[in-house]
C-alpha cells in the first residue's frame, strides 16, 4: 500500500512537471508571435498545473477536496430595506469535509454524526513573471496577493470563519498566508449607500485590475423585504453573512504590520518542482490542520 501511494505521488509529480513544461512552451510561442519578450502568457494555462498540484498535495488526506471556482458571497442589508449580495469566485478552494463533529455538551465533549464542510483555503493564480528577477517575481506575486485580499474580504461578515488560508501564485512561484479575524474592527456592515458600487472596505489598497475582475465582482441586488423565493439556492460552500449582524470584523493577514515586500518578497516564495516547494506544501497542510475555527472537525486531515 505504501509503495502504491508513493507511486501515485510520483505520477502526480510527473504530471505537474509536464504541465509546467507545456506552459513554458505556451509563453515562448506568445513571445515569438507578439514580438514582446516580456509577455507573461495567459492565466488560464496555469489552472491545470495548480489543479494537479493541489490534488497531489491532498492525495493521502481523506477530509480535503479541491473545489475549482467555489463561489463565496456576502449579503448586505441596504438602507432601503432590501439586500445586496456580493460574490467572488476564487480560482480554487480547498474544502474540508467530515461525517462527524465534536461538540461540548454540559462540559463534556461528544462526537455526533453530521455532514459538515468548510472552505479552509482559497487560491488566486496569475500568469508567470516576465522573468525570474526578484522585482518581476514580486510584481507578479503582488498582483495575485492583492486580488486574494479582495477575495478574503467576503468572509468578514461570517462570524464562524475565524481564520482562512490564502494561497497566491504566479506561475510556479507561490506562497500562502493565514488570514485571521481582526477583533478590533466593529464598523457597520448593514448599510450601503450606493447599489452600483462595491464596498470599498473589502478591496485591497491597490488600483490594479486583472483578468479576473469581472469574475470576482459579481453582484446581485434587489429591493424590498427579504424574500427567500427571490433568492437563488445557495451552494453549500457559499459564505453568506447574516444581514442582522450589527457589525463585521475584517480578516487580516497575520503579517499585516509588515510591508508588502516583506510579506511576499521574492526570496520568500516557494517554487513548484523544487525541494523547498515540497516543504512549502507540507507547511500548507499543517496550517490547514491547525486552522482556528475548525475544532468541530473530528479526526486528522
From TrEMBL:
Ranges of compositional bias, category Acidic residues: 187-200, 225-238
Annotated stretches, region: Disordered: 182-260
Biased composition (Basic and acidic residues): 201-218, 239-248
Protein name stated in the entry: Uncharacterized protein
Source organism per UniProt: Sanghuangporus baumii
